[in-house]
Every structure is written in structure tokens, then in C-alpha cells.
Amino acid sequence: MSIQLDIGAALSMAKSLLMAQGVPENVAYDVAEHLVESDRVGYASHGISILPSYQNALKMGTLKADAPLECIRDRTASLGYDAHLGFGQHAAKVAFQNAIAQAHEFSICALTLRYAHHIGRTGFYGEMVTKAGMALLAFTNIVKRKPTVAPFGGAKARLTTNPVCFAWPMPNGRPPFLLDLATSAIALNKARVLAAQGKQAPPDALIDAQGNPTTDPNVMLQDPPGALLTFGAHKGYGLGVAVELFAGILSGGGTIHKANHGTKGMAVNNIFALIVNIDRFATKAWAASEAETFVEYLKSCPPQPGSSGVQYPGEYEAANKAKNSQTIMLDDASWQALQKMGTELQVSIPEVKPI
């Protein structure tokens, strides 16, 4: 059973639930906007269903409702921020806005952000950058929590999902190229959503606590837990290690070694990103023409049997956003959790009909 919720109602509800916990209005709006957009583009694992876990983190003090965002480095083509365990969606949005402005002036901006509580879907910031006509390379690691991802050949978790994001603006009204993926085969929140929906994980995505392959996402919720696997075996593993080094060390937030493990309910992100002002490297007309020619070449490829044809990364999100222009969908378990949260916080929850 699914729940259909109006976008405006979802935004208002998410914002109200956050403000009822002492989150400032501007921060609550940025977080609510981010979560609803994640649902719109097809990533429920990073959508409003995650709000109850934020409530737990606020109660535990591992997430700070009104933490200040501190600029710790402002040099030519380089910005650095410390979020002091505040909401990552707000901290990252502000940091990327300022980095885009600096890239306008200096051609590029090397951006770091440390100690941000869960920045959410990195593709959101890729979309911000491409709307400004720029390109993005971003690496995000996770500290202050227990590892969830096994290294290649290992039977126990030693890494986290360590997402990477690459984004490029496309011409002629096309959606931006947007590659936003965890270096694990699936995201941890995806495993939670699958478990809540009673569905199986894909093969080669999980191992149980003894290191045996499994498709049961519930192993991630057990004690001791199983582990996620990296995508592409040793290739995803190598990329995950690169993310630890670039995001963890350059931001100053650290890597996931044992001293940086944390408690349940905590997820601290560190980011290293490079924002590139394409116009400073190639003429606007040539860059647009070359991108269009390349995409046409890709999409002219004959489809494999059973395939609907070639897409480039970013078209999936754009199609979902268009389909979900007015409403978003939630599973029943997530909706019940939000209703419970509303009752606890004395926040009015919209009336909806299951479909």
C-alpha cells in the first residue's frame, strides 16, 4: 500500500516537524526542500521518510538543531566550512552557493565541508551547480558512525557508502548530466527501505554477519549486522578508499578508522568538491555544441534486446521530477512513522488516502 501526498503539504509538514524540535525556520525549510526533492526524483531512501531518524539524532544530541555554519577557510578559489554537527542539507546548500559565486570570480572553487550531519542526496548540489552553468566533482565520506561497507575481499565492514557525484550542464533544454552514486552496491537507507517494504536486495549487494552473500536487507538491522558490498567489486572499493582520503583528510573531518566510529543515530559527512566554471576553459558555444554532439552519439546507439534505449545519467531523475510535479509517494510504514512523529510533536499531519 502506498500514500500519495501533495508536494506543498509534504514541504509544510516536514518543515513543521523540524521547527517543532527547535530547528530555525530557514534551516527547516532547506532540509524539508531537500527531502521532498529527493522523493520527487525517485530516491525515497533520502526523502521525508528519514525524518524520524533525525528526531532520534536530535534527542541524542548527535545532531544540533541550531548549530552555526563556520567559514574556516576563504582564499582565492578555495572555501572551507565547519557545520558543527548541524543539518547537512542546510550547511551544504549555503556552502555550495558561496562556492558557485567564488567559481564565477576565479574559474574554479575547491570546497570543503566538515562535521555536517547527513548532507542528503549529493545530486541536489549537482543540480545547483549545473543551474549556474558549471560542472561539479564531489566526494563525501561518513564518520562518527559504525562502518557499513566491507572492503573488497573482507567479511566485516570497514568503510561507509562514500558517495561520489559528477554533474555537467547540458544544452538545448536537456536535463543535466548527473551521476550521483554510493560506492557501495546500494545505499544503507536503500537497504532500510527495502526491508520496510518486505523486498529483497539485488545479488552481490550484501553479506550477513558471517560474511556470506545474501539478498535479505534485514541483515543490516540485526545485531551483529551484516555489511554492504562495494559496487563493481575491487573498482568500487578503490573509489571508496579515494573518497576517504580526499573528503576525510582535505576537509579536516577525518576518515572512518576505529577512533572515528560513533554511536547509533549519528552520521557525520565531510565533503571535498571542485566547482568548475566551464566558460573559463572553453567557449560557451563550443562546449554546448560538443556536449550535444556527444549525447546524440550516445543515444543513437542501438538498444540491447529488451532495453528501451540508451539514457545518460540525469535523465532518470528528470523524468521522475516531471512525473512527480504535484505529488510524492510514500510506503505505508514510512507514513505511519511520520504520523507517530506528528503525534509526539503535536504537529498536524495531512489527511491522505491510501492508493
TrEMBL record:
Its EC number is 1.1.1.27. Belongs to the LDH2/MDH2 oxidoreductase family. PANTHER family: MALATE DEHYDROGENASE, OXIDOREDUCTASE-RELATED. This is L-lactate dehydrogenase. The keyword Cell division does not apply. Keywords: Oxidoreductase. GO terms for molecular function: L-lactate dehydrogenase (NAD+) activity.
